[in-house]
Amino acid sequence: MRLSETAPAKVNLALHVVGRRADGFHLLHSLCVFTELADQLTAEPAPSDRLAMSGPFGADLPSGRSNLAIRALEKFRARFPGTLPDGVAITLEKHLPVAAGLGGGSADAGAVLRLLAAMASARPADAELFALAAELGADVPMCLLSRPCEVSGIGEIIRPLASFPPMHLVLVNPREAVSTPEVFRQLAHKHNPPMPALPDRLDRPAMLSLWLEDTRNDLQPPATALVPAIARTVAVIAATSGCVLARMSGSGATCFGLYGSAAAAHQAAHDLRAGFSSYWVAATPLLAA
C-alpha cells in the first residue's frame, strides 16, 4: 500500500507579533493561506524506516533527525506504538525552497502525519494528531490543516475560515536563506497591535484587499535588514499589473504578490522572471477554505 500526500506552501498574508512569553516564544496573530504549489510525499511499508529525497530542492535538506519528516515519523511511533508497519519508507519530492518563509519543513511534517494516520492500524483522533503536530513545531498544526486560517498564540490556536475568495499568488525568492531565530532576535518591537477583526464571511477579493490594507508583517523590517534584496523584490512585485498586495511571507526571504486572476499572476510571474533571472519565481492558486 503506497499512499501519497501534498505538502502545500504556507504563506502569511499578514503576520503581527503581539507579545513574547516568559519562555521566550513569541505570540503571533496571523492570516495563513496555503497554495497548490507543494512538496510531494509518499509513504509505504518497508523493512525499516527510511527517507529518500528528490526534486529541485531535495539536496538542500538534511536527511537525518534534523529533518522534520523523520522526526514526525519517530514521534508518531512513540505516541502510537504498534500501529505502524515495522518500517515505513518515505519519499519527499522537494519543490519548495528551504528556509524561505513558506513553512516547507512544517508542511512536510504535516503531510507525513496525515500519511501515517492513514497507514496506521488504528487511526488517531484528530485532537491527538494536532497535539503531536504541536510538539514538532509551532507551524506544524496549521500545516497539518492546510487551509485558510486565523492563527494566534505561538501558532497552536487555529481558527479555520469558513470562506475565502479565489486568489492567486506569485512567489519570489532571492535564493538567500534566512534564519528565523535571527529575524526574531533583530525584531525591535515585540508587543505590537493585533490584526483587525476578520469579517464573518471573507469571500470576495475586494473585501480581502480592503482588510489587508490595515495589516502588516512585523518580521519584514528585521528580515530586510538581514537580506536587503527583500525590499527591492517587494517593490518590483508591487509594480506588476493587477497586484493587490506585495509583502514578505513569514520570516522571509520569499516575497509574494496577491492577484485576483490566474492570467494576472502568470503574466506577473513571466515579467518577474525576466527581471530576476537568478531568483526562484512561481505562480500558484491558493487552496480554498
From TrEMBL:
Q: Which pathway?
A: Isoprenoid biosynthesis; isopentenyl diphosphate biosynthesis via DXP pathway; isopentenyl diphosphate from 1-deoxy-D-xylulose 5-phosphate: step 3/6
Q: Name one Pfam family in it.
A: GHMP_kinases_C
Give the residues annotated as active site. K10, D139
For ATP, which residues are the binding ones? P97, V98, A99, A100, G101, L102, G103, G104, G105, S106, A107
The UniProt keywords, alphabetically, are: ATP-binding, Isoprene biosynthesis, Kinase, Nucleotide-binding, Transferase
Question: What residue stretches are annotated with the GHMP kinase C-terminal domain?
Answer: 214-276
Where does the GHMP kinase N-terminal domain start and stop, copy by copy?
67-146
Q: Kindly list the GO molecular function terms attached to this UniProt entry.
A: 4-(cytidine 5'-diphospho)-2-C-methyl-D-erythritol kinase activity; ATP binding
Q: Name one GO biological process term.
A: isopentenyl diphosphate biosynthetic process, methylerythritol 4-phosphate pathway
Gene3D superfamilies for this protein: 3.30.230.10, GHMP kinase, C-terminal domain
What is this enzyme's catalytic activity, as reactions?
4-CDP-2-C-methyl-D-erythritol + ATP = 4-CDP-2-C-methyl-D-erythritol 2-phosphate + ADP + H(+)
What EC number(s) has UniProt assigned to this enzyme? Answer: 2.7.1.148
Function recorded in the entry: Catalyzes the phosphorylation of the position 2 hydroxy group of 4-diphosphocytidyl-2C-methyl-D-erythritol.
Protein family (similarity comment): Belongs to the GHMP kinase family. IspE subfamily.
Protein name in the entry: 4-diphosphocytidyl-2-C-methyl-D-erythritol kinase
Organism of provenance: Pelagibacterium lacus
